[in-house]
Design a protein that fits this description.
Layout: E1 7-17, E2 22-27, E3 40-42, E4 50-59, E5 62-67, H1 73-77, E6 83-87, H2 101-104, E7 108-111, E8 116-124, E9 131-135, E10 140-144, E11 152-154, E12 159-162
């Protein structure tokens, strides 16, 4: 099995900050402080055009970032609306039972009785718990990502097993 290139979108540059080239970043991560350890990022999914992080600070739920070589508001303005990406090697270490969303998308989903439900199409990230979006082709099901409903995730077998309650798959 060949390892596919995995990229993670970690944020979007949404505006400039001040006159000296800082940018405001809307983070797409559940841990905003992960930007403290970010040394570099890319502005494309192909991981070309590497940008180095000079410094990071926070203002509310936004990341204020100074990027090396971006020293004016005019240069910073050109980065506005761009998404920021990192490669898998820059991702954080996962705890047992944690998964990268990109590894879950495409898993075949079965009930505990072996009935195929569909394919995992998306993961909606919410404050309390994530919700898996499973598509059967004609219908989509929303499955809360808690162990009671999702007892097994097996990446090696490309399989997720769910234990739905009455009405969950109607």
């Amino acid at each position: 099995m060949t390892e596919k290139l995995t990229v993670f979108r970690i944020g979007q540059i949404v505006n400039t900050q001040g006159l000296k080239g800082e940018v405001r970043v809307y983070p797409y991560t559940d841990d905003i402080n992960r930007f403290d350890d970010l040394e570099y990022f890319y502005l494309d999914k192909g991981l070309n055009n590497k940008y180095e992080v000079e410094r990071v600070r926070y203002k509310g739920n936004m990341v204020i970032m100074k990027i090396k070589g971006i020293d004016s508001i005019e240069l910073a303005q050109k980065l506005k609306t761009k998404n920021m990406y990192i490669g898998r090697e820059q991702g954080r270490e996962l705890e047992e039972g944690e998964f990268f969303v990109s590894d879950l998308i495409g898993l075949d989903v079965f009930t505990v009785d072996g009935e195929k439900v569909g394919v995992l199409k998306d993961v909606l990230q919410h404050a309390i718990n994530d919700v898996y979006v499973v598509s059967s082709g004609e219908k989509e099901y929303l499955i809360p990502s808690i162990e009671k409903f999702v007892p097994t995730i097996d990446l090696d077998q490309n399989k997720m097993i769910i234990d739905p309650i009455k009405g969950m798959l109607d």
